[in-house]
Design goal:
12 strands, MBL fold metallo-hydrolase, hydrolase, 278 residues, Metallo-beta-lactamase, Chain A, alpha/beta, five-stranded mixed β-sheet
Length: 278
């Protein structure tokens, strides 16, 4: 296992790589699983915690071992929450839900993709971007079937297992994409509503060069909705953000760059060409 997370030392945010556990709040920690982040919400040693997103396929053992290292030998979350259903965010959801015997929650509009009924739009290999955009047609796109464990998030914005948080609809990357926000300290978990690395550029992904960017281009079919979602999140003025891809951001840099992304989204994030922008 690379960069064994079973030691208690948290990785510095400037050197995060696959297999590293990093803490952005005392009760909010991320784990990088190859190219994507999953999130543990709950104080270390507590039995009251949840997992947000389920990483890449074949990541069950890593995620479960990190859960034990953070929460104890019998670690078992109250629930698994999904920001959306793309393969890199639900890759180990079935295995983890069965292993822990816990419910899974997502937005109602994600249900067809999480119950085996519907495919997401195929990746846009023609979109403006780097090598990963061109290779995105090779990425898995088959829906998974989480029945009978999958449930819809409540319309009132409450989040199972996270009483101090609320979910926010942030469509664009997918129809039912959601983000999570805690008003007390303005902590935010955004999945792929926006990211902090150019996910279509192979070099940027490998080096994890931090750059606040819109959602991954090759998997985003609705750029108007994506822009509106970023603007909605920017209005909340978060203090720290954990994204689905890239290193967390906080403080002055986050405020400056997120305001710029919201203001100039069509220039910074929206690709100049591709099926999704026609």
């Amino acid at each position: 296992m690379p960069n064994n997370p079973l030691n208690s030392k948290m990785m510095p945010l400037t050197s995060i790589k696959s297999g590293d556990l990093f803490e952005v709040r005392p009760d909010v920690a991320g784990l990088t699983v190859k190219i994507v982040n999953v999130c543990f919400v709950g104080h270390p040693g507590s039995s009251d915690w949840v997992l947000i997103d389920a990483g890449m396929p074949n990541s069950k053992e890593l995620i479960a071992e990190v859960a034990v290292s953070r929460f104890g030998e019998n670690a078992r979350p109250k629930a698994i929450l999904l920001t959306h259903g793309h393969f890199d965010h639900v890759g180990s959801a079935i295995e983890l839900a069965e292993y822990w015997d816990v419910p899974v929650y997502a937005h109602p509009l994600e249900m067809p993709y999480l119950t085996g009924e519907k495919y997401y739009p195929y990746p846009d290999t023609q979109v403006e971007g780097g090598l990963l955009a061109k290779l995105s047609g090779l990425f898995p796109n088959t829906p998974i079937d989480l029945r009978p464990r999958i449930h819809s998030l409540s319309d009132d914005g409450s989040v199972p297992g996270m009483p101090d948080w609320r979910w926010i609809a942030t469509p664009g990357h997918t129809q039912g994409h959601v983000s999570f926000f805690r008003d007390s300290d303005r902590a935010m978990i955004v999945g792929d509503a926006f990211v902090t690395v150019r996910q279509d550029e192979l070099y940027q992904v490998l080096t994890q060069h931090q750059e606040l960017s819109g959602p991954p281009r090759y998997f985003t079919p609705d750029w108007d909705a994506a822009r509106d979602s970023v603007q909605r999140l920017a209005e909340l003025n978060p203090r720290v953000v954990l994204t689905g891809h890239g290193r967390p951001m906080e403080g002055e840099a986050l405020g400056r760059d997120l305001a710029a992304l919201a203001r100039d989204f069509d220039h910074i994030a929206r690709p100049s060409h591709g099926k999704s922008v026609q």
